[in-house]
Amino acid sequence: MEVFERDRKINFVDENDVFVGFDNEQDCCEDFGWAFLDELPKTCYEAMNQNSIKFDTKDWVFDTAFFKLFNDDECDEETAVVAFKITKGKEHKYLILYNSHNGYYGHGFEMQLSGENIQNGCL
Question: Most buried residue among 20, 27, 34, 87 by CB atoms closer than 10 A?
Fold first, then answer.
């Protein structure tokens, strides 16, 4: 998997031509970002307050069958978090995208397989 910034997005592309892009432009005072984590967080607060792990992303690919949008029971009204699973053999990790804002500033995301949308939305 390659991780790079382009067109005001942070982009993740694996060897199976799966692409995840996330709007990476600061608008005001929102707290947004992304992280790689070893375990799937249980809450939005947990997802947003862990440091991203460092690892070699080479040979890691997205599990396109897994997508988690944290629901209203797990987040407050102004916070949104999504999770994608990545795998390498039997190992797995999670890509977390998050945004906590005042209700005005959103950050779009999309997941595509060979150019076709699988998931998209705005956090």
Answer: 20
DSSP state of 59: T
Report the distance separating Cα 36 and Cα 34, nearest Å. Answer: 7
- Give the tokens for residue 44: 């939005």
- DSSP single-letter state for residue 121: E
Task: Classify residue 118 as exposed, middle or buried by CB count within 10 Å of its CB (0-12, 13-18, 19+).
Answer: middle
**73 membership: H or E segment, kind and range:** none
In one-letter notation, the amino acid at residue 103 is: G
Residue 96 vs residues 12, 60, 99: alpha-carbon distances, Å? 12, 15, 10
pLDDT of residue 48: 86
Written as one letter, the residue type at 92 is H
C-alpha span between 23 and 9 (Å, rounded)? 5
The DSSP element (H or E) to which 39 belongs, if any, is: none
* pLDDT tens-place string over residues 38-85: 999 998 888 888 999 999 999 999 999 999 998 766 677 678 899 999
CA distance 58 to 33: 21
